[in-house]
């Protein structure tokens, strides 16, 4: 097996493609967010299918995917959103191990369902680690998103045998549920009863801004809750802004915040809302805990 | 001091002090964190702080026995810190309208002379409560109330690294370029976040910083020294 490095070059970079891994932990004391794949479930699945280390770096993509040229042989797999994938023009399903040859062209087409697509690669993307993680984050890593002039290093693997024809059929069922499991947030006691009722009864619609810091819900829960003194927040913390907006903090969120923290998503709920797209509807199921 | 606690999720506990910004609370938080790390290294994954809150993320869901022992430790936290460990850092700042876009407007708004603004802003020692907002952003306590000014209604798209600002009742330094709603009154040549060092920041929680007014030429000299790796932060 040859372990020299080759490069993924980008004919088209896509819109917000970035290198992500499990996340950057242990630096929140210095104000550093976790970052890492938005949908950790699909991220882990990609590395599992490839038999990678569980913190191997992948390419995360959304909205408009890239078109890539692989210099040398390797194996890749796609997980997450339901997206059209083409290898040298031939459609390929997500979830299938794809053995690539010298100069193969991989094109990510239309996003049909879900927000974030992951491309795992055997051995993981070999971009540098910054503070122990390869996840890209502005101000920490050299890049924030993939641009046409950036190339991504990976380990070359010559495959001796073909991959099995059968592969797991990855569906979007797991993230199509509208019910989001949540715990009561740290500032739950400050929320008036009328808002609590709305939180557990109302449907909320995902807003149209896509970013890695947070998801805004289209709502207007007017209230008189005073702001809190700046306090810790985490991915999955749900904030209520002074103007009555609801924000679900995601992987790139700040480590502290000044808005009341009304709910806290479970780990799997964070992955589910990550895959929600503009105008999807959700409701909160408050866990008795 | 009186504390309360709350289990947010099976592996996350938040300890709260009375809602206020004080050195005493900060010292209790630091003493609690040190005690927790000493006694529970394995099950504690991460500790985060706000002004009057300390949250503990565990590596696994915790049981009531473990929770009890954590609360016992929290109740014993004291505000007595070993004083030799507290440092006072000097941060050079150039208060010049060429480097600080809101400086003149700030003075007009507050009806004070630039000289007076500099005198007030540099005469205080600011307590580093914790880091948040951006990598390397210090939440500082101790701004003189004569300099309080509500944040801008419309945040600026790009505030440069090293910008020293005032927002509401707080003063702070932008460690990297970022959007922000604070009034920029000065600029420091120092680097407040460096991924090549461990830790990536210089002042620790509980330390103090004070601002020292420098001319544009010494601002530029310090910036050059930093590029050459020759600058060492001053403390007393």
Automatic annotation (TrEMBL), chain A:
Signal peptide: none annotated. Keywords: ATP-binding, Hydrolase, Nucleotide-binding. Residues 29-289 form the Carboxyltransferase domain. Pfam families: CT_A_B. PANTHER family: 5-OXOPROLINASE SUBUNIT C. This is Biotin-dependent carboxyltransferase family protein. It comes from Belliella filtrata. The lineage of its organism: Bacteria, Pseudomonadati, Bacteroidota, Cytophagia, Cytophagales.
TrEMBL record, chain B:
Residues 3-203 form the Carboxyltransferase domain. InterPro entries: CT_C_D, Cyclophilin-like_dom_sf, PxpB. Keywords: ATP-binding, Hydrolase, Nucleotide-binding. It comes from the Bacteria. It holds the Pfam family CT_C_D. One of its GO terms (molecular function) is hydrolase activity. This is Allophanate hydrolase subunit 1. It comes from Belliella filtrata. The lineage of its organism: Bacteria, Pseudomonadati, Bacteroidota, Cytophagia, Cytophagales.
